[in-house]
Structure of Glucan biosynthesis protein D:
Amino acid sequence: MTAMRPPASLPCLCKGQVLLLWTVLALIWTAAPAQAEAEKAAPFSRQTVVDKARQLNKTPFDPAAGQVPQALLDLDYDAWRDIRFRPEKALWKNEKLPFQLQFFHPGLFYDRVVPIHIVTKGNAKPLPFDSSLFDYGDNHTVPEQIPDQFGFAGFRIHGPINTTKYFDEIAVFLGASYFRAVAKGQVYGLSARGLAIDTAQPDGEEFPYFREFWIEKPTRKSSSLTVHALLDSKSCTGAYTFVIRGGKTTTMDVTATLFMRAPVAKIGIAPLTSMFLFGENTDERKVRDFRPEVHDSDGLLIRNETGEWFWRPLDNPVNLEVNAFQADNVRGFGLLQRDHDFNHYQDLEANQERRPSLWVEPKGNWGKGHVELVAIPTDKEIHDNIVAFWTPDDALPIGVAQTYEYRLNWHAGRFTHPPLGYATASRSGDVEGGGKRFVIDFNSKALQLLRQPTPIEGVVTCGKGAAVSGLHVEKNPHTGGWRLSFVIKSDEEPSALEKVLPNRRTPIDIRAFLRLKDTTLTETWNYAYHP
């Protein structure tokens, strides 16, 4: 808009009238852009997202393809990584707030533009894309490919999580409905998702995505940052709210309201995704590697409604494995990284001993259902091959709001819990004459106080078709904990087909724990033995 110039003369007006006229004209001139700005802002609350999800549920699914130019999608990984957000331009950096936001550029795998709104005092305003926020490195022609109306692929949250002097990453929301976080002193490891649909089903998995975000601007005294997200997919829409607090344990209080568009074979609530290539319990490695272990998580932990704690070591199977663990009104589940000894990894770059454990703590009763663990064979650590989630026994009704509330706890260090002892290592080896010997180390401060000859008993049970022998419990002087060992041997002859395809044999379920008289000392260790 060009500057306004006064007329050459106003012979009919006195000086006071001229000043009044110019005051009115100035107000009219400045009101237009101010009004335009006001029109961009809209009242906002969580109900806004719920209403959007409900309305979106009544319309056909739009995959939002074609928003990102092909030239950006054709970038390789190194080229896309070369497009970096300029840290000095982080949102709220100069306002001395406890959180800052940085943004990701679309391209490569990230083929959708995700609108992001900033909510200030109950009003939401779109955050416009600006290429000057990014350093494009050697991608000199990329800015020329960006359309006039563009957006971001995702964002990351920074805060004083490790020191009050510097802001480090706390959490990232990027790609489909994926997000991840770290606690103090940690590096990124496993991820979470908004929702899992038809994971490991024959017809393929459906990946919902967060199609829009609203981020509430914090005050200088805020201890948390609130993020709202609109979820969309072919079969479901949803409204999500995350209240995020970084710290020694980073927490996310999640409220998810779902609207099913169509029936699905399986829905996964609070899904977690991780990587397990090989560990101490791996019989045969699929790769030759200098490292003793390679994994972001080493086990699944479940707390049942009855109060039992249940531990399942992870593995990299030969064939796809799907295991269901009954968990009505589940009180908690998670993928944990219990091993924090650098000597067990020997990786100066990956720092897998510093990967977080992620614990899901449901609020209220979720009803009848089970925790499902999916393990996908892989020979590369770049693949997240482990998935865990809770799934209801009954299908969710079409078009009717279903709300799940839970807390995600991203733990630093070893995650401790009420049982007196927990499994710290699981090993096995072949036995001459057939069968397999299992050696499990249990430990805790309480177990370390128990000395021999305390009559600690090992309780081991196995499924049909196998027998337990050679059971032995002893103090481990090197760890201070206790070691349980036993042999499992199949007492059934394999069928003709199983002799040709030994990997097709039905695995034998094993459960073990330690007790002292009538007192259960440890969680229940569980494993699937493939004879």
Q: What stands out?
A: The CA atoms of residues 209 and 244 lie 20 Å apart.
